[in-house]
Amino acid sequence: MNRAMWLDAIVAGRTRDSRNGAAGVLAASLAVVTSIAFSIDTTLRIGATCYLLIAAPAVLLVFAGARPSHAVLRSLQPSKAANV
Question: pTM for this structure?
């Protein structure tokens, strides 16, 4: 069933969401392994460090004016045919 869901996501063009989900599963697995091998305290410190490291690129992207493409904005607006 997992393979069918993966293929469905690829066919539907949702590979970005699938990669995000896969990254979350891998990160959670790595956190469990780190907790078992070292300690929960070490895992929390590593997680906090990762969040602090990602804060700088996030702020730079916000100030750089990263905006969604116009095609995405147009798809969010109601169509003219729906108003008729």
Answer: 0.53
